[in-house]
Amino acid sequence: MYQDDIGKRSEKVKNVVERGAVKKFAEAIGDLNPIYWDEETGKRSRYGRNIAPPTFPRVFDYGVIEGLKLPPKGLIHGEQRFRYERPLFVGEELYCYAEVKDYYEKQSSMGQLGFLIIANNGEDTNGNLLFTSTSTIIINEAVRKAMSV
Amino acid sequence: MTTIREWQVGQSLPEVTLSPVSRLDLIKYAGASGDYNPIHTIDEEAKKAGLPGIIAHGMWTMGNLAKLFTPYYEEGFVQDYFVRFQSMVFLNDIITLKATVKEKDDKTIRFAVAAVNQHGKEVVKGEAVFSLYE
């Protein structure tokens, strides 16, 4: 049911890697290493500044993919991948957007499962891709049926 | 401090065992990540969804697992990090984080990574590629 959405993308949204948000996120994953929040440690590091944890892109705004209707409940996060050109720097500006990469269905013991692949991308201010966060979302038959009503 | 380059194929980074998963852990993650799906924080909503109780965000476990690499940022960075969410994490579960070197060359170290619960079950399983600086 999502085949027609493949290739659709959101408009790019400006995001900032906010200092307070990075510290709060690092704390929430129990990773309060000073490289993420202590300015002196950041300055002395090879990066010359603080960086963000690899799963931090969860917090960014990727905009809205026009026409993509996801069920409000019952989605299962099956797989997740983060790919980086380099770590993200605290304070830098990014342009983020989402894209429907793929959709397919597979027969399983739990019925016909749908697999929706969404890529969340982040670019620097020059348009260079810095990271891609790819999620595989599993949508079961019952949830899909509830949607088409 | 040991450097990540010294680790050989088959060796593992020091394991980390987390405190039992608490509701506050998940409330904090919801706030920090912006993922307010109530099956992670509110019992009735989890039950309505057919779950025995609230479950951790998969991304909470994945985020925790990445900290095994945090001490080594002067040597390189996590270039590629993939996991499959294999099993649910419930309140009071005790999660242990693991990373073992699978392959290694001059530029990258490939790790098998996993988060394992108190019953020895892999709840999160995947791979991380650590890219080394020159």
UniProtKB/TrEMBL annotation, chain A:
<dbReference type="Pfam" id="PF13452">
    <property type="entry name" value="FAS1_DH_region"/>
</dbReference>
<dbReference type="InterPro" id="IPR039569">
    <property type="entry name" value="FAS1-like_DH_region"/>
</dbReference>
<protein>
    <submittedName>
        <fullName>MaoC family dehydratase N-terminal domain-containing protein</fullName>
    </submittedName>
</protein>
<dbReference type="InterPro" id="IPR029069">
    <property type="entry name" value="HotDog_dom_sf"/>
</dbReference>
<dbReference type="InterPro" id="IPR016709">
    <property type="entry name" value="HadA-like"/>
</dbReference>
<feature type="domain" description="FAS1-like dehydratase">
    <location>
        <begin position="5"/>
        <end position="132"/>
    </location>
</feature>
Automatic annotation (TrEMBL), chain B:
<feature type="domain" description="MaoC-like">
    <location>
        <begin position="16"/>
        <end position="117"/>
    </location>
</feature>
<dbReference type="GO" id="GO:0004312">
    <property type="term" value="F:fatty acid synthase activity"/>
</dbReference>
<dbReference type="InterPro" id="IPR003965">
    <property type="entry name" value="Fatty_acid_synthase"/>
</dbReference>
<protein>
    <recommendedName>
        <fullName>MaoC-like domain-containing protein</fullName>
    </recommendedName>
</protein>
<dbReference type="GO" id="GO:0005835">
    <property type="term" value="C:fatty acid synthase complex"/>
</dbReference>
<dbReference type="GO" id="GO:0006633">
    <property type="term" value="P:fatty acid biosynthetic process"/>
</dbReference>
<dbReference type="Pfam" id="PF01575">
    <property type="entry name" value="MaoC_dehydratas"/>
</dbReference>
<dbReference type="InterPro" id="IPR029069">
    <property type="entry name" value="HotDog_dom_sf"/>
</dbReference>
<dbReference type="InterPro" id="IPR002539">
    <property type="entry name" value="MaoC-like_dom"/>
</dbReference>
